[in-house]
Amino acid sequence: MVGKNSGKIVFIFFLLAFIIRIIFVFSLKTKFYFDDEYEYWKIVNNFITGKGLMVSETLKAYRPPLYPLFLVLFAKLNTGITGIRIVQALLSSVSCIFIYFLARKVFNEKIAIFSLAISSVYPFFIFYSGFLLTETLFIFLVICCIYAFIKLAESRVSPVYGFIPGIFAGLAGLCRPTMELFFPFCLLFIILSKASCVVKFKKIVFAMAGFIIILTPWIIRNFIVLGSFVPGTTMGGAVFWEGNNPYSDGGPCRYFPEGVWQIEESKRDQVFYKLTIDCIKQNPKRFAWLLWNKFIRFWNVVPNASEYTKTIYRIISVFSFGLMLPFFVLGIFVSPRNLNTLFLTGMIVFFTVFHMIFLASIRYRVAIEPFVIMFASSGFLWIFNQLHCQRKT
Prior knowledge:
- The protein is built from 17 helices and no strands.
- By secondary structure, the chain is mostly helical.
- The protein folds into three domains: 1-133, no CATH class; 135-146 and 155-229, no CATH class; 235-393, no CATH class.
- Helix 4 packs antiparallel against helix 5 (109-121).
- The longest helix is centred in the middle third of the chain and has 30 residues, at 197-226.
- The protein is globular.
- The model has no long low-confidence stretch (mean pLDDT 94).
C-alpha cells in the first residue's frame, strides 16, 4: 500500500509526467517521422483490409504482432495519430508509477520517489511516447513483467499467480522478441528464490503456462502462414547481418547480399544467420571490434543517429542520461546485494550483451533505462548520505 503522503507525491509526478508528454505530443506534426512507423502502419492497414498481420507478402512475420494490434484498436476507434500519441503519453506516465512501485519493492521509499521524479521528466521516455514505435508499450510490459516475477518469488499465496508474470512476459515477447530470450532467466530467478522445491516447481509451471498461452496463437499463425516454427519473427537473421556485415559499424546498415530478399521468408532468416556467421569466421578480429563498438553505441551519452547530431539533442542527452550514468555505475556497487537487485542487473547485462551481438542503438537501451534510473537514484542518495554523515561528524 502507498502511504497518504507518498500517494500525493506519486499523483503529482504522474500528473507532471502526463502534462509534459501531452505538450510534446501536440508539438509534433501529424505525420510519421521514422521508417518503422510506416511499416507498423502498413501492418495495421493490411490487417484491417483482411490481408493479414503482415508488412507485405514477402514479410509476413517480419514484425512482432502486439504493437500493430495495439494500433489497430485505436485505428478502429478513428483516434488518428494524435489520439494514439495521447494514449501512449498516458501509458508512459503510468509506467512512471510502476517504476515507483518496483523501486520501492527492490530498494526503498526514497529511491522509489527519486526514480519516479526522474522518470516523469526523463527526455527519452517523453520522446518515444510521441511516436508510433514499440518503446512505450514495451517499457510498460517489461516493468510489469519484472515486478510480477519479484512478487511471485516473494509470494506465499497460490502458485497459480505464476500465470500473471508469465502472461506479461509473453506479451512483452510479442512486442519485442528479445524478451522471449530473457524468459529463461526469469525462471532461474524463481529457482533461486526462497521457497520449497515443490512450491518453486509449481510457480515455474504456471509461469511457463501463462507464457506459452500468450505465444501459442502467434506460433500457430506462423506455422499456417510460413509452414515453420517461428515463435518470434523472421527479422532476427537480417538484424544479425546488419550489425555484423563487412560494412557495418554495429548500427543500422542497409547493405544486403544480392538476391537474399527473394528467398522464401522462413528460409531467408536462416540464410542471413549463415551468411553472418561465415562473415564473422572470416574476420574474427573485426567481429571483436564490432562487439566493442556496439557496446559504445548502446551506452553512448549522445545520439548515434545522424539526424539527431544537432547540439540541442546532444545537450539534452548529456544532461539527462550522461549525468545519470556515473551515479548508475556507483549504484550498481553500493546497492544492496540480494536476489532482486541481481535480477535487475541481469536484465541490464542481458540486453547489453544481446545488442552487442546483434545490433546496437540508444533506442534499444531505453527498455532497461527504468532500471538504470533506479540504480542511479541509489548511487546519488548514497553519496548524499555519505556527505550528510561527514557533516554530522
